[in-house]
Amino acid sequence: MKETLLKDGERINQLFSSDVKIIQNREVFSYSIDSVLLSRFPKLPKQGLIVDLCSGNGAVGLFSSTRTKADIIAVELQERLADMAERSIELNNLNDQMSVIQDDLKNLPHYIKESKVDVILCNPPYFKVDKHSNLNESEHYLLARHEITTNLNEICKVAQRVLKSNGRLAMVHRPDRFLDIIETMKQYKLAPKRIQFVYPKQTKGANMLLIEAIKDGSLDGLKILPPLFIHNEDGSYTSEIHEIYYG
Question: How much is the pTM?
Answer without folding.
Answer: 0.91
